Amino acid sequence: MDDATLSEAAGAPVRVLSRALLSGGAIQQNWLLEVERGGAREDWVLRTDNAATLAVSLTRPQEFALLRAAYSAGVPVPEPLFEGKHDGKPFLVMRRVRGTANAIALGKQVGPGGDAALVRECGKALRRIHAIAPPRHDLPFLGEPPADPALAFVAAMEQRLDDAGTPRPVLEWGLAAMRRHAAPPLPPVLLHRDFRNGNLMVEEGRVTGVLDWEFCGWGDPHEDLGWFCAPCWRFAHQHLEAGGLGPREAFLEGYGTGVDVARLPYWELAATIRWAVIAADQGARFLSGVERSLELALTGHIVPALEMDILKQVEGLDAGTA
């Protein structure tokens, strides 16, 4: 990214002093830029597409609009600065926030006892996201909320499995269980749809930034709650049900009122199925030859473990003990 492109997008002269590709980002690239603007030095993060993307991922201009809405709502997010295009690829620039988003490092920091205060903060941040509700004229690309978010989720996952063309009987079985146990719909809210350990920037026990807004949509707030608490995002601390970082009770306490705990096992199953579908898609991206990434290849190998989780979760859901 040259100085001229950034200067045009920023609307002021910008000089890049250093740049470094940040770790992570199987779908997007994130670059840390040290720049000089108006005689002052600033740290920015530039976010743009990788060589291959997922069809369900929002575009960078759409993600920029979501960041602006979240920032205005008091959600702890990096301040969105500007957006532009380089070689035909859209990008967005946001102010850098300090901390770490590395899930393994955060797990080591909290230890096996967890950090109740941290997951309370996570709950509060998620509640602020869910305070954004339709209609929102600044977010037209999200479309109309589904009449029944649970059944819409099942249909979307079934379509993605059909499109992939690879038989996944365990995932289909899990989706059939979701159809059987679907609860009546609730008023829709903005869902982050990837609110989890690994997408939260944390410094000194505080959430400094909620990252990766590319999967947002309208739906049941319990979908985000279940995603955060699903076993697949607890990493080394399976006993810490709130993202492997702390107790579920503290997370829900931070979130506040309006949680129907009986819905959580349903949406934790949904989270496991969705992550298995994404993991299979990422493995297929590697096998296609479009993007020869070791991260994508290894992600494809976790599908069998997720299928085992799905078998257990469906058994618990059917027995009413999940």
Please describe what this structure looks like.
- The chain has eleven helices and nine strands.
- It has two domains: 16-95, Phosphorylase Kinase, domain 1, CATH 3.30.200.20; 103-319, Aminoglycoside phosphotransferase (APH), C-terminal lobe (Aminoglycoside 3'-phosphotransferase, Chain: A, domain 2).
- Strands 1-2-3-5-4 form a five-stranded antiparallel β-sheet, with helices on both faces.
- The chain is an alpha+beta fold.
- Helix 6 (169-181) packs antiparallel against helix 9.
- Helices cover 43% and strands 18% of the residues.
Write the layout of secondary structure elements.
Layout: H1 3-10, E1 14-21, E2 28-37, E3 40-49, H2 60-72, E4 80-86, E5 89-95, H3 103-110, H4 116-130, H5 149-164, H6 169-181, E6 189-191, E7 200-203, E8 206-210, E9 217-219, H7 221-229, H8 248-255, H9 264-288, H10 294-300, H11 303-319
Antiparallel strand pairs: 1-2, 2-3, 3-5, 4-5, 6-9, 7-8
Helix pairs in contact: 4-8, 5-6, 5-9, 6-9, 6-11, 7-9, 9-10, 9-11
InterPro entries: ACAD10_11_N, AGP_Transferase, Aminoglycoside_PTrfase, Kinase-like_dom_sf
Pfam families: APH
Protein name: Phosphotransferase family protein
Counting DSSP E segments of at least 2 residues, the number of strands comes to 9
**How many domains is the backbone divided into?**
2
Question: What is the name of the CATH superfamily of the largest domain?
Answer: Aminoglycoside phosphotransferase (APH), C-terminal lobe
Strand order of the largest sheet: 1-2-3-5-4
Domain Aminoglycoside phosphotransferase: 21-260
Pfam families: APH
Protein name: Phosphotransferase family protein
InterPro entries: ACAD10_11_N, AGP_Transferase, Aminoglycoside_PTrfase, Kinase-like_dom_sf
